[in-house]
Amino acid sequence: MQGRTTTTVLLGVAQTLAWASSYYLPAILADAIARDVGTSSSAVFGAFSVALLMSAAIGPFAGRLIDRRGGRPVLIASNVVFAAGLAALSQAQQPLHVLAAWAVMGLAMGSGLYEAAFATAVRLHGQQARRTITGITLFAGFASTVGWPLTAWLESTMGWRGACLVWAGLHLVIGLPLNAMLPAAERAAHAPSDAIGKPEQQAALSPDKQRGAAVLLAFVFAVAWFTSTAMAAHLPKLLLGVGASLAAAVGIAALVGPAQVAGRLIEFAFLSRAHPLLSARLATLGHPLGALCIGLFGSSAAMAFALLHGLGNGILTIAIGTLPLLFFGAKGYGQRQGFLMVPARIVQAGAPFLFGLAVERLGVGALWISAVLGLVACLALTRLAIDLRR
Fold this sequence. Notes:
Layout: H1 2-20, H2 26-37, H3 41-69, H4 71-90, H5 95-112, H6 114-125, H7 130-140, H8 143-180, H9 185-189, H10 193-197, H11 207-241, H12 246-253, H13 256-271, H14 276-284, H15 286-297, H16 302-328, H17 333-340, H18 342-362, H19 367-389
């Protein structure tokens, strides 16, 4: 238990830093970067999309390395690459430099964000990693809460270039030592059988059913990341469309982050003893239920929508780590997780643009697209539950 707690704290704090300095960086710095290098904010976000595609490409390779050598060396290397990418971004003088820096950042994101952390936890603790995965997401759930204000303060005091350099330094003086303190993979090799000793016997599905399950899980994860990213980009505009004031739209959209953390707390405190598929299916219904509230009650249900969406999204983040462990076991978890997340990263890269088109054409009606996707994801998980019972 103590070993899992240590792993949770080390990975949780390191993940908070990694997310705050990468995924949540463009929201604060994109305009300033664009002005300085002579391009548009949309071009900066386009470079960020390239980083997401790079992370999709590198994810399976990083996962395979974690399966073979453990997560510590891979995560340490990701801190170095994060620092290099942020330092390169701080020196950008033209749009091509920004694109190249974010491409480097994409390599770090593919080997240093949730998928790598989850694979590290499974490599160390095997089938007992569910609570560790939940704990990691609890810590990192505050990445935007910490990252956005800190980045804004750094940008206001030393400029966006200085902010990037500070984040690069934090990876070297905080993130790297935290990951270096993780247990070595050799400890996992000598762990008891409930960890990683007999992973083949702990996969919930037979090999002939695993291919179909992998397709369904990849679809569910893609829906989760598409909806999460689309809402992060367009939720205030959607709330304005249902009649909320600007101040109310921004304030209500800000509730999504705390709601995600609340969802993870619910998973940790109450659903940890329940079957992972039950909590995942409930989570996929959060966004559709919120959309239904908006459709029935308009702007008066805006807060309910934000809370339901956030609760579901927070629990689904955990499911991305726990469901592959349930269905396929601990052996080869990292590489398999990397492959399962490739479609999710690809659709995530295009989500702001594609959902933006839907909002321009349909207005608030665009929510029905994401709501239907959530319902189909729930049906996919129901199908997997039926396969398990059989």
